[in-house]
Sequence to fold (275 residues):
Amino acid sequence: MLKTPLGYSISVEKLIHPEATQIVIIASATGVVKEFYKHFAAYLYDNGLSVVTFDYGGIGESKPISLRRFSTSAQRWATNDLETVITHVREEFPGMPVTLLGHSIGGQLIGLAPSSLMASKIMLVGAQSGYYKFWPAGERMKMLLAWKVLFPVFYSGLGYIPTSKFTPMEDLPGGMAMEWRKWCLSPQYLFDHVEESGLYFHRITVPLYSFSTDRDKFATEASTDWLTERYSGARTQRIHLKPEAYGVKTIGHFGYFQKRCSHSVWPELLSRLQA
Fold:
């Protein structure tokens, strides 16, 4: 467990390869526990990379006994949690190149963490703007119902959002969920709410690979393009995967890291990490 500047601790898992020439830090999707990435992390380790995964405050093994009084936010997941992990890794392994891999919101948070400027490479996987108008029409109304009705009701009554009851996600800390909700209802997403001094997207100049795929209802090609363009100073390669080209029916938002894609998509991700 790592103690963070905000006082709470976050759970970290490390796979340190004795001959690794880089360390990959995986920043998870919203409400997704680090164990979800364990098979992919093991694959990277078997191919000579060191890997660090962690749970954001309030998620998985970083969850307190009760979320009702637990205080954090979406922005703090970046400036406190991800920042603590990057700083810890750089202190423990000085001189070792660090690659940041952000899945979904993880790719958004990279641009809010000051130490992301020290990364040697960035990989965005299904990382997008969450603005509701980017969502497919069929999903848009569901999300508007959640953000405008369900989230405020649950937050008022429980102090957190019991998303595990109706989605595959973990329950979300109230402050985080309500800030994320605010972002998703804003045309410029988090850029409508975070001060310029807290934005590092345009200051990142290293190689950046941004992945999207067909039929990903959470991260459309357009919403992925939108976020990728915010990393305006990076040396960007935009890669859109067609499932049929990889011998699978669908990849979706989470398939990138599922074992069913281990012989198809994983080598593609690995090749970019090793580039």
Notes: The first helix runs from residue 38 to 46.
